[in-house]
Amino acid sequence: MISSLHRPTKAIIDLKAISKNIQTVANHLPDQVKVWAVVKANAYGHGAVAVAHQVESQVDGFCVSNVDEAIELRQARVKKPILVLGVVLPEEVYLAKDYGLTLTIASLEWLHLAKQLGTNLSGITCHIKIDSGMGRIGVRKQTDAETLIAELKEQGVFVEGIFTHFATADEADQRQFEQQLDFFNNLVTSLDHCPPVVHASNSATSIWHADTVFNAVRLGLVIYGLNPSGRTLEMPYHIEPALRLESALVQVKEVPAGTAVGYGGTYHSEQIEWIGTLPIGYADGWTRDMQGFDVLVDGQFCQVVGRVSMDQTTIRLPKEYPLGTKVILIGKSGNQSISATDVAEKRGTINYEVLCLLSDRVPREY
């Protein structure tokens, strides 16, 4: 999807805020802990290349979801280590060698398939994934982890790390978190040859369980200035949201009472009203369920009326405004603000999804 540079809808990213957030979290971690910035999914919608260039000197490496995200960073001359968190099929291992990537190995079955295909694993670096209770990828038994480590070493693989992922570190009920932590801790301490890098801490764990950090952390949403728990847990320190989503009025019209607005005629003006149109819609990630939510115009909340369409959104204005008047969808205007968490609560989802759904059609301005 091409970026729409010639319309007033854009996401403005404060890269310095991301740097500051990393430093803030790092200040609350034990000394000598490695810090990796998670820049998967286009850095949670913020722009992976721009973010990586901004913070590369601050971090020990980066985490991405797949090989293509890693290649994008390498082609942009990012030199720090890159850990691919997802499973890479054996036939694509050569890409890890070509681009100097660190792979996640998550099962004995993967290794057996690689051997069956005759995949040359010699020279790659990997981390072993442990499923401590998330139920996705990873080995569940210490014996499997031991076998995997030993056989990978026989194949000439440098097994640099071992890690897991917590399912409930951002929730008030900590029982599952504690069970996973105990499982993982017992497994790694029982290994005959534990890899040198051990990590289990995502953003939530790094914030609310800093005392459980091993020797590396993976910082995701928190570096972009959002609370990983939404509003469930209070942040112990201030972080600054790095993304502002804005547009502008491209049409303003006065309509009489009873005027239908938008697809399906789901909204009718109750009196004479000023209706403004914004060039943003669900193709941009401003989804249809935002009808009834508010945006900010001139420091005032203005309701989205009528259904959000693919390319346009209509809002009810308190008065006539000139064309080109700025409209804030996420961010601050005057004394008011709308956060990605506010948007998420309207949608019945999480702030992660709100950011990741911002499509490539929305230009990122830094």
Give a verbal description of the structure.
With 366 residues, this protein is an alpha/beta fold. The chain folds into 2 domains: 15-224, Alpha-Beta Barrel (TIM Barrel); 243-338, Lyase, Ornithine Decarboxylase, Chain A, domain 1 (Beta Barrel), CATH 2.40.37.10. Helix content is 27%, strand content 25%. It is built from 11 helices and 20 strands. The protein has helices spanning 15-26, 40-44, 48-55, 67-75, 93-99, 108-117, 142-154, 175-190, 203-208, 340-347, 351-356, and strands at residues 10-13, 34-38, 61-64, 82-87, 102-105, 125-129, 158-163, 197-201, 216-219, 243-248, 251-255, 260-261, 267-268, 273-278, 294-297, 300-303, 313-317, 326-333, 336-338, 364-365. Strands 2-3-4-5-6-7-8-9 form an 8-stranded parallel barrel, surrounded by 4 helices. Strands 1, 10, 15, 16, 18, 19 and 20 form a 7-stranded mixed sheet that branches. It has a 3-stranded antiparallel sheet with strand order 11-14-17, with no helix packed on it. Helix 1 (15-26) packs across helix 3 (48-55). The longest helix is centred in the middle third of the chain and has 16 residues, at 175-190. The model has no long low-confidence stretch (mean pLDDT 97).
